[in-house]
Amino acid sequence: IQVNPRLKIETFREKCPVAAGEDVIKGLTQTPKTLPSKYFYDDHGSLLFEKICALPEYYVTRTETKILQNYASEIAHLTGPCEIVELGSGSSTKTRILLDAYQELGHPLHYLPIDISGGILEQSAYSLLEDYPTLHIHGIVSTYETALKHLNASPLPARMIGFIGSTLGNLKPDECHIFFSHIVEALQPGDYFLLGADLHKPKSILEPAYDDSQGITAQFNLNMLRHLNHLFEGDFNLQQFEHLAFYNETDHKIEMHLKSLRSQTVELKKLNLTLEFTAGETIHTEISRKFEIQQIQQELLDFGLVSLHTWTDENQWLGLMLCQL
Ligand code: AVJ
Q1: Residue 322: Cβ within 10 Å count
Q2: Any idea which UniProt keywords this protein has (predicted)?
Q3: Is the whole model's pTM more than 0.90, yes or no?
C-alpha cells in the first residue's frame, strides 16, 4: 500500500446490498418504470461519461471549461483561500482550472472530491497529487447525501462547495430543495457554493447532445442495466433495450429512457425481483433539466444562498454562479 501524507480517501457504502437496492425496487415496480440516475456511474459508466464530455455534440463540458478558463481567477479573488469540496468530481479535469487559479494566488490547496465511483476518484487523486506539489486531497467515495453528512470542519478559513457540470439538472424540483438544504448544512456563514447550470436553448442543440451520432450516450444509458446486472445478479439483456432521448419543451428537460424491444422477463436475483416488460415499454433513467438563471438565483436565496456573481459564455448556454451563505 502506498502511503501519501497528502492523500486520504474514505468510502461510505450503503450497509447491505438489499438496502442499497431499495430505490431500484421502488423504481422498477412503478408504472411507468424508473431508475435513479446515480446507477449510471460505476467505473465503466464514469469512463463513458468522460467520452461524452469529449463529443462534438455535447456542448456542456466544453462551454463550462471556457467559462472557468475565463473567470477562475475572479472566483479565487472573490473567495480567498478556501477548501474546495466537489460533488461528482469524476476526472476532476475542470477542477484543475480552479486549482490553478488558487495556486496562482499562492493560496493553500485543499481539495475534497466526492464521487460515487471509486476508481475514477482514486485515479484522478493520484494524478492531481503529482501535478500540484502542495495539494492536500481528502476524497470521499459515496453518494452526495452521505458525503455531505460526513464533512468535518474545513481546514481553511472558508469552504466552497462546487457542483458544476449541471448535475443539478438530474434532480427533480423537490429533490433540488432537499439537496440545497443539505448544502447549506455543510456550510458555515460566509462559505461559498459554486453552481454550474445548463440553460434553456433550442431543441436542435439539446437533442443531439443527448443522442450523439457515435452512440456513446446510448452506451452510457444501457450501461445502467449492465451495472444493475452486476450489483444484483440481474439478467437484463442489453441487446433487447434501446436508448431514447428527447427534449420535453413543457418542462424544459431532456428525458432519457430505455425502451424494451420485445416483451420479456428480467430477474434481479439479489433483490428477489422479477420484472415483466411489454414490447415498447420504457424505463425512465434520467432527467436533465435546463434552467433560467433568475429562477435558480431565487431558489438559492430561499435557502440563504446569495448570488455574488454569475458568469456565462458568449451564447448564454451555461451559467456558473458563485453564491455565499
Ligand atoms: C453529468 C448529469 C450533467 O445531464 O448532461 C450526459 C449526464 N446524461 N449525457 C447531463 C448525461 C447524458 C450529465 N450530467
Answers
A1: 22
A2: Methyltransferase, Transferase
A3: yes
Q: Are 227 and 42 in contact (CB under 8 A)?
A: yes
Name the residue among 134, 146, 135 with its Cα closest to residue 92. Answer: 135
Residue 90 Cβ inside 6 Å of ligand 1? The answer reads no
Is residue 245 a contact partner of residue 64, using CB atoms and an 8 Å limit? Answer: no
User: Which three cell numbers mark 235?
Assistant: 439478467
Q: First vs last Cα of the chain: how many Å apart? A: 40
Question: What pLDDT is recorded for position 13?
Answer: 85
Q: Is 210 in the pocket of ligand 1 (CB under 6 A)?
A: yes
Q: Ligand 1 centroid vs 253 CA: distance in angstroms?
A: 11
Nearest to 120 by CA among 51, 59, 63: 51
- Indicate the pLDDT class of residue 31, thresholds 50, 70 and 90: very high
Q: State the distance from the centre of ligand 1 to the C-alpha of 288, rounded, in angstroms.
A: 7
Q: Is 169's C-beta closer than 6 angstroms to any atom of ligand 1?
A: yes
Of all protein residues, the one whose alpha carbon is nearest to atom 2 of ligand 1 is 167
User: Does ligand 1 lie within 6 Å of residue 217's CB atom?
Assistant: yes
pLDDT for 55 beyond 90: yes
